[in-house]
């Protein structure tokens, strides 16, 4: 078997996902190790922690992250052959994962729900398929909050009921206590609590509305994001901001901004810097090149970079 790739390691990262329910750990992905501030070519399991702690600061409930971990890699040329591959861990301090619904503000590409939370009107497109009527696209936690609001979207001010949320991907919630009862990552429990999308849409009864445009820029149909892609986020608060994709297989555990609930998201998009703030959730991530293909949706941030989810319907390799 040739040199193990980051894609192969990401495909085998499942056993480590249970770490996300340990105290202080908030995210993980496979990426190149950073040493003395420089990115190396050595793959590592990157562990995002709320705060870095020395060994002397750890308590009896804290999890001591090992310096190396072993992945069980399936040989592409011989699927019956599983190869144990040891890689180093890379612990980075990121703070908590934060869903970014902000206080209401007028104008821009803002959308609002009845609880006066603000997110971003990502784009208007035909959804769920190309034969559907135009729909306003944004994220679940900024619009319908898993169906717990009255689902009205107000734009651009609270006295204008612009649209009604007609569908969303439910966010499955889970607590660390529930997760602790299922230590085997192959337990069916993990699939029932894993989330791949934070997504909602509101059908618009206007066939003449402009579709596939953001701030006057025409965008194209969603495609799969790739590491090192240069992207643009169009947020209602920060406007057009650029970043580079660090991972397309980012797993994280987040406090949702409603009901005190928590959720596990799997296979998300991690960006190399912070380009968003409260009110930008739901912004579409678009290729910076001339094709302007949609590659995902912005849903939150950590101190080291914003993050989001893939677009529904885009095949994963």
What do you see in this structure?
Helix content is 6%, strand content 43%. It has helices at residues 6-11, 140-143, 176-180, 189-193; strands spanning 25-35, 38-49, 68-75, 78-93, 98-99, 102-103, 110-112, 117-120, 123-126, 134-138, 152-154, 161-164, 167-168, 194-195, 200-203, 213-214, 217-218, 230-235, 239-255, 262-271, 284-287, 294-302, 305-309. The longest helix is centred in the first third of the chain and has 6 residues, at 6-11. It starts with 5 loop residues before the first helix and ends in an 8-residue tail after the last strand.
The largest β sheet comes out as: 6 strands, antiparallel, barrel
- Helical residue percent? under 10%
Distance between the termini: 20 Å
Structural class by secondary-structure content = mainly beta
**How many strands appear in the DSSP assignment?**
23
Q: What is the CA-based Rg, rounded?
A: 20 Å
Task: Estimate the global geometry from the Cα principal axes.
Answer: globular
Q: In order across it, which strands form the biggest sheet? A: 18-19-20-23-22-21
Order of helices and strands: HEEEEEEEEEEHEEEHHEEEEEEEEEE
Query: In terms of per-residue confidence, which ranges show pLDDT below 50 for 5 or more consecutive residues?
Result: 103-109
Q: Tell me the number of helical segments per DSSP (H or I, 4 or more residues long).
A: 4
Mean pLDDT: 86
Strand content: 35-45%
